[in-house]
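Exercise 7. Given the components listed, write out the predicted structure of the assembled complex. Treat all entries as one system.
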Amino acid sequence: MAMLSIVYFAWVREAIGRDEEQVERLDPGRTVADLVAMLAARGGGYAEALGDTARLRAAVDQRFVPMDSLIGEAKEVALFPPVTGG
Amino acid sequence: MAMLSIVYFAWVREAIGRDEEQVERLDPGRTVADLVAMLAARGGGYAEALGDTARLRAAVDQRFVPMDSLIGEAKEVALFPPVTGG
Amino acid sequence: MKRVAIQAEDFDVGGELAALEALGGGGVASFTGVVRGGNGLVALELEQYPAMTQAQVGRIVDEAMGRWPLLGVSVIHRFGRLEPGARIVFVGTASRHRTAALESCAFLIDWMKSDAPFWKKEHFAGGATQWVAARDEDAVKAQGWDS
Amino acid sequence: MKRVAIQAEDFDVGGELAALEALGGGGVASFTGVVRGGNGLVALELEQYPAMTQAQVGRIVDEAMGRWPLLGVSVIHRFGRLEPGARIVFVGTASRHRTAALESCAFLIDWMKSDAPFWKKEHFAGGATQWVAARDEDAVKAQGWDS
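Answer.
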């Protein structure tokens, strides 16, 4: 079964308590926001980290994307706070 | 008798063949342009270097000034081409 | 010349600039970012998204080289734990035109400061920590280059 | 920190920048001008007006420090005979604000390039020489900062 990697950074990573995990690949019609809602529904650190999408940014296969982007056939979704640069 | 130093730079210096000379201090009503005309009237390298004031720039006591500035009680007048910086 | 380095180690600014000077363009501009102290800060911890950083920085360097007539660009960004006074980021640009060198340097550092995939965590005396929030002004500044 | 040096000798860019980094501002910008080769140029000879140069450069540095919130400025300009690849001029600025560091660096190098009392003579292979003419574009650029 095809899997999707999810990677977390900064306080998203800290709240969830891990920096990477694998989930079953979603229906190609699902968006990043759908994935975030699905993960937040787990409660606990997930709800804390992912409950407010306004505080989150995402990348699909190492490209920044808006939350309503389709995940499609991507291999990796990254969820993180707005970057703070150098 | 009070003297005025005149200093020359770049091709003005080369055409005149010296980098510095002393002249008697002029009447306080005289301008830099008057001094230039007086020197150019000597002919030779002076005429070559100082004949066309549009090609010249000046400083009085180490301050850039327009050609119609009064020399007044200044101690040093510098005559040179437009600067070319670094 | 195009050099992008994402590294934990410090770097030699003089050496980076000498390589850019040697390209023969006549003008080299640079910006170096250093960890600022104050408010009891004992260290800044920089986290990155390694799979993304090198590619993203490379892409923005290509964009700068397309926009300005540059002979060389060097970008270095550090990650890990950095104490006040430590260098974080360096951008160097070489061109025959000083305006091109200066403007592209400003463009690149604006992008590095607002869009590069790094996150900063402040460590204070006594053990308190805090993730630095993104500053809107940086995003606005970087967008100013889009048009 | 304010440093103005008019000298024949080369200088250490890394060392100059390290002194500016040490001021704690967080941002250091620089521009280095290097003699460009080409067209058979074997050397550039820089003549200055010594009684004027140091004071003039000091004055423009003071002006930059009044206009931007700077912690330090370093300006170095060489005179004498310089071969292609040699450094001619350096401007470094340190600030808490990277825009201030970058803008003041651009302001100072524009001034140095258009208004500093230096004259350049080109020496070519075969012995020909030519005084470099002032470029109008430099004067226009420097004036752009007046308002």
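Discussion: The longest strand of chain D covers residues 70-78. Helices of chain D lie at 13-21, 50-67, 98-114, 136-143.
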